Amino acid sequence: xxxxxxxxxxxxxxxxxxxxxxxxxxxxxxxxxxxxxxxxxxxxxxxxxxxxxxxxxxxxxxxxxxxxxxxxxxxxxxxxxxxxxxxxxxxxxxxxxxxxxxxxxxxxxxxxxxxxxxxxxxxxxxxxxxxxxxxxxxxxxxxxxxxxxxxxxxxxxxxxxxxxxxxxxxxxxxxxxxxxxxxxxxxxxxxxxxxxxxxxxxxxxxxxxxxxxxxxxxxxxxxxxxxxxxxxxxxxxxxxxxxxxxxxxxxxxxxxxxxxxxxxxxxxxxxxxxxxxxxxxxxxxxxxxxxxxxxxxxxxxxxxxxxxxxxxxxxxxxxxxxxxxxxxxxxxxxxxxxxxxxxxxx
Amino acid sequence: xxxxxxxxxxxxxxxxxxxxxxxxxxxxxxxxxxxxxxxxxxxxxxxxxxxxxxxxxxxxxxxxxxxxxxxxxxxxxxxxxxxxxxxxxxxxxxxxxxxxxxxxxxxxxxxxxxxxxxxxxxxxxxxxxxxxxxxxxxxxxxxxxxxxxxxxxxxxxxxxxxxxxxxxxxxxxxxxxxxxxxxxxxxxxxxxxxxxxxxxxxxxxxxxxxxxxxxxxxxxxxxxxxxxxxxxxxxxxxxxxxxxxxxxxxxxxxxxxxxxxxxxxxxxxxxxxxxxxxxxxxxxxxxxxxxxxxxxxxxxxxxxxxxxxxxxxxxxxxxxxxxxxxxxxxxxxxxxxxxxxxxxxx
DNA sequence: TTGAAAGCGCTAACAT
DNA sequence: ATGTTAGCGCTTTCAA
Lengths: 346, 346
Fold this sequence. Notes:
Number of domains of chain A: 3
Oligomer: homodimer
Shape of chain A: elongated
CATH superfamily of the largest domain in chain A: Response regulator
Radius of gyration of chain A: 26 Å
Structural class of chain A: alpha/beta
Largest sheet of chain A: 6 strands, mixed
Largest interface: A-B, 62 and 61 residues
CATH architecture of the largest domain in chain A: 3-Layer(aba) Sandwich
Number of helices of chain A: 13
Number of strands of chain A: 11
Distance between the termini of chain A: 91 Å
Helix content of chain A: 40-55%
């Protein structure tokens, strides 16, 4: 009987020795494979318990080429990450599903540089640290798909794919709904000239949402002004807002690509002495809990970020296991009317 | 010469074969150990490059008992996580240091249940998934220290330790400063009756900060009212605020344990028809970027969350490597005066 | 300076 | 039903 080395953590052989069986018997028991007698199973389980043993992730990974971890790499700068909770909400959705399945989430936050991002994925893949990755923030001409294919790293994308789905994609149903409702809401309030402040052009959803916006605006024969924030920062949103508000015919309502930009927009409007919603109506996107706390409470397009994260996690793991996906429904984006929108001044 | 199996990823033997050397030579080259001839080194490096090979993390971990990953487990509910960016900011600080050192961050978000948390740590340790963990949110009678000692999992704590430092602790210098400045600021504005809304009692910093508050208030002979929010949610903060404001002698200023609670407090005050800062001054804690965007812009105690995260990461890795810590300085908490504080109405 | 070989802890054929 | 054994890909003595 192999004595357990002092100081070392117990291994499968320690368990086997204590239970008086072979290591393969232990392996079978803990993995529910092969056939084992009930009495043996109990003895093994007892020993496992007594020794507080868990299989070494490294050994299992080495042997079975599965790490039970999935990766995520974010190219957002730390500042942006702390500014906009969008990413954290997604992560909590993902973890909500991953945790019960005993999967870990390996996070890499790299700088803005594309090169750092590539390196992060390569390490994840080549060092075999994760079984797959979840991609967010789909980009136009996204290089990650090629990279991941070369690395043979399974992936799932949350969001709008750049072109034909290169990897399984997770999106809410009725994509157009929320934004369309928002435009209708503004039109019905009597707005005739509305602006849309979108994020950087390299995001696929930027163009996608802008199209939805324009189409909805056309249906209501609204005149539109399109602005692009150079990034998702408060400064970017403020600059775009300033631009819109210095127009000769300035819009009476502005929609933003996310809630934080909307807040920055409201702040910028105020600096110009404008009242929201008196002089300017504002609509956000995401429906962060925060929106209900500020003054005026933010009208916004609610997005089921947690649902998106959950389904992405489930989809990826199902894909890895070759099992069918059994995922909860994601709520469609929908308008949440609060106080930052009102009829324009006559 | 061992042929590289089609479909499989290259292994160290493929590299060795291509370079015409032994695997141990390759190992020595990539790890800068032992002595190798310059010419051999070049051939190996060439082969590594040609094959795009990286060592398998699992194999390295199995062999050397080091995973180059550190873990973090958060007991916050997903809702709370999305509500308060505090945690994300810490993470971005941590990642900022971890990434360049080629360390990964394995995240586990477990529910509120203490048991899930224990399991998460146990898995991290027993499965040898990480080399150490970073702890946040120090609790009174924190059970994690015992647990981690038993698991022999190195750890670093960000925050105020519950008792004598059980593990290395990372804190900002001049802990008392920010909150003390805030009280002084209110006193100098003419406030005589101020409230402090703290978070749940199980957090160590709750009592710690309350003591700072009380002491500062005493020095300025302010009368105080102490409230406890049952949790860090908007509802908790709102309820505590309501309680304070329904007092016969209601405070003219309220300080909150964090910015999000302060925002919820302002919102609650407004629901009672109170103007901030006209009828009530409000002070937050953390100085999230958000605070500069809301109306009124939030006076708050700034905390160097990113610095805390960075130093924690550096400290833990240094500890693991048995190397001395060379960490950047963390800024002390300091008051950031904006617009949510003003002289009380006469 | 280099290489052979023994494992790290586990899983899965294959025997028994 | 159970055990033996050959690796998974790497690091590290130890010899040559």
